[in-house]
Amino acid sequence: MEKRKRKAKLENRKLYHLIRQYPQILPILDRYGISFCAGCYLTLTKTPKEAAAFHAAPDAEKFLRDLSRVILKKGLKTY
Q1: Which of 16, 23, 37, 38 has the greatest number of CB atoms lying within 10 Å of its CB?
Q2: Domain residue ranges in the chain
């Protein structure tokens, strides 16, 4: 249950909050083709799941797991 709570809290956060708090996720975003170029800056106002859909990330579930893994690896809270 704790994993679900953490995942839900991660999924409900906007990317700009996550990047500001956890800059180590930037390589993960890049790996999945989630960028912030002209026009794509709107991605910052989306949740990770919305950003994955907007950028047609190949595997949204794996993307969310990778984000969670990187954040939790550092012993950081996702809320």
Answers
A1: 16
A2: 2-72
